[in-house]
Write the structure tokens for this entry.
Amino acid sequence: MFCKKCGTLYNPKEGPCPKCSTADIKYEPKEMSEEEAAHLRKKSWIQLLIGIPAFIGFIYLTIYLMDLIKS
């Protein structure tokens, strides 16, 4: 389960969130302006558009290097 206060993944069968129960975390969601939200949205899309092709390229490079080592 995902803790809505601190963002930690935990098993609810084992009890409450271990991070929140051990520390006094007072999470207050910050209100974002429309400009900040748009900036973060744009930043996230740029990271996805660069990161996914880079990861695929890394996989192809790894396979290519493995083929070079085999032969």
Observations:
- The longest helix spans residues 34-70.
